[in-house]
Design brief:
CATH architecture of the domain at 150-286 in chain B: 3-Layer(aba) Sandwich
Strand content of chain B: 15-25%
Distance between the termini of chain B: 155 Å
Structural class of chain B: alpha/beta
CATH class of the largest domain in chain A: Alpha Beta
Helix content of chain B: 40-55%
Distance between the termini of chain A: 34 Å
Strand order of the largest sheet of chain B: 6-5-4-7-8-9-10-11-12
Oligomer: heterodimer
Radius of gyration of chain B: 42 Å
Largest sheet of chain B: 9 strands, mixed
CATH class of the domain at 150-286 in chain B: Alpha Beta
Radius of gyration of chain A: 23 Å
Number of helices of chain A: 15
Order of helices and strands of chain B: HHHHEHHEEEEEEHEEEHEEH
Strand content of chain A: 25-35%
Shape of chain A: globular
CATH superfamily of the domain at 150-286 in chain B: Cell division protein FtsQ/DivIB
Largest sheet of chain A: 5 strands, mixed
Number of domains of chain A: 3
CATH topology of the domain at 150-286 in chain B: Rossmann fold
CATH topology of the largest domain in chain A: Nucleotidyltransferase, domain 5
Strand order of the largest sheet of chain A: 3-2-1-6-11
Largest interface: A-B, 22 and 21 residues
Structural class of chain A: alpha+beta
Helix content of chain A: 40-55%
Chain lengths: 444, 296
Amino acid sequence: MMTTLSDMRAMRERLRAALRRGLIAVLDVGSAKTVCLILEVDAARLAAAEAKGSAHEAHAALRVVGAGLTRSRGVRLGEIVEMEEAERAIRTALERAEKSAGARVDQVIAALSGARPRSHAVYGEAELEGEEVASRDIARALAAAEEPERREGRELIHAMPVNYTLDGRTATADPRGMAARSLGVDLHTVSVDRTPLRNLAASVRRCDLELAGVVIGGCASGLSALVEDEQKLGAACIDLGAGSTDISIFLRGRLVHADSARLGGDHLTQDISVGLSMPVAEAERIKTRHGGAIATGMDERELIEAPHLGGDHPAERRRISRSALIGVIRPRLEEILEDARRRLDRAGFQNLPGRRIVLTGGGSQLTGIEETAQRILGRQVRIGRPMRVAGLPASVSGPDCAAVVGLALHAARPQDEAWDFEPAASFAPRLRLVGAVRWFRENW
Amino acid sequence: MRALTARLIALKNDPAPSRLGFRLKRLWRSARFRRAATVHAPLAALAAALAWSAAQPDFRAAGLAAFDAAREAVTARPEFAIRRIEVRGAGPEVTAAVEAALAPWRGASSLAADAEAVRSAVSALGAVASASVRLSAPETMIVTVEERAPALVWRRGGALSLIDATGAEIGPLAARAARADLPLVAGEGADAAAEEALAIFAAAAGLAPRLRGLVRVGERRWDAILHEGPVIMLPSEGAADAMGYAAALDAGERLTRRAVTHVDLRIAGRPTLRLTPEAAEARNETKKPRTPGKDA
């Protein structure tokens, strides 16, 4: 069905091996910052949680033992544009995380932001071999799904079974063991540009790390910023990043849509820098310190030190009012949110049962953004802080680190993917021997 | 806001580690490598160095000498010296003898003291049957002694000595009168047959008051010497029984009161008497054949 199937399967194997060993890293290479967390996984507890099917217990088996955060370099609009620089940033973050963890990790799950993701829904159906649905039947139904049309240079990174139908009726999340004659699977596939994906994989490899999974950034943010009920009833997560705005829609606990706009907080900074003719670093500082979305009467009187571009002479020091700053920020913010609304509309977000929208990411820390978003998106909006994970330091528990925390949650409880369903009986004896050898190599 | 400021500072100041440094640090963090570098490699180097130096005779000798010197320095410390020797289970004379025998250990290091050597030194004293040695803190060596009980007086040439029931020599005796209560044996090898001698003395019964002593003949058998009586020559085997037989003969026949110089019991079932010359003369007279030549 897909060319990268074996890669995906290999990554899953690495993930499982890392979870058995109990140490894995997650990495988010964003436009503004690169964050690396090192997770300690209680394998026994995780297995118990898996048997129970409880997400909460799976997350409780996690513990963050190291965190490294550094400024990103060589990343624009969420994509790596300078390999050497991005690699340096990853090295720095990983080095810090490993130092605080006091351990070495070799497997990493990375988030891919930007890269123009596109969601497709495909459907596959198969007659059951036996009376009850088995894992093999799901694999056959998935194999029967037609491949979504793909342009050249695109790569599939997610293919998640989101819904099962048994004899035409919607079934539970896990149809295994149900009696039926035919099984249908709705498959949600996400394809991305190949180049950013390859660049991410290469930069990770150049840091001597093994990739144990790639998750689309929006999905990772949604996993941590949306609470479990929101994920079940249907909700959208808008991650206002520095270089890109990642959108994900969840329904019944599964990712059903992912999108990304090439607009973000860096554009706000750029507007401030250009509009008020300030150095970029100064513009960034003023944005985070004094920025806002809605101006009030008070803001007219609040004056901010705003140095001129290229002029550091004391005589040229000037002050601008906060409302002038907001006046620059606001149109761009509205543009970003309107773009997000357009993308949500195109995905058919109105038709979902629950229509909650959660804002997260660094941009969501802007004062007054809730009201603006509410006005533009037309419904109740809340700011989503990432879920608490044991041992998470305060510096990475803000909304701007939702993606990396989401990756941690994903590590403990990966979403089902099409390549997880492999009929075990189809393994040839030789392959089983190879598997045994590999098992020994990985575990001893 | 403070967290944000701190973050800004952290973000501004980030020297990226060089690739080599990064690799080395990661290598160092891998548990296996670190164990190899901190435990296995030093141990291997140490073992190799030891093996190499042990293979060099000069090094080896110098090392052993240094080791001995170090051990010497420790054992010679005054804290380890034996200052008191306590002898238990012995009479005053034996105690004095034992203490004299242990004189070399007085002041010696208790670490260097060899219990076996002390025991053999004490056991070398005739009066000591067995000895046990232990060290007791502080500075005391306790020697528990079991004395030998004298059973016989042994005369060899002109010298008298005491031996016990097993024949072990206890020590010299100045005069026979000092231990008149003990029976007397004489002759080479008498000590080896002390047990038999004691059995003979026990079997003497009625002869006992007149029995002056036993003489070992040819390190093989005994002669019993009676006061004013014949010599009783005992066999090498069953000497005690033979002595009992002699005592019975004496009780019945007053054998020893007769004119006999030797009672020869060496051949079982055929006691032979040697008469005094006068008695033999008298006997020859009486036993002279009346019809000479008949036997010839």
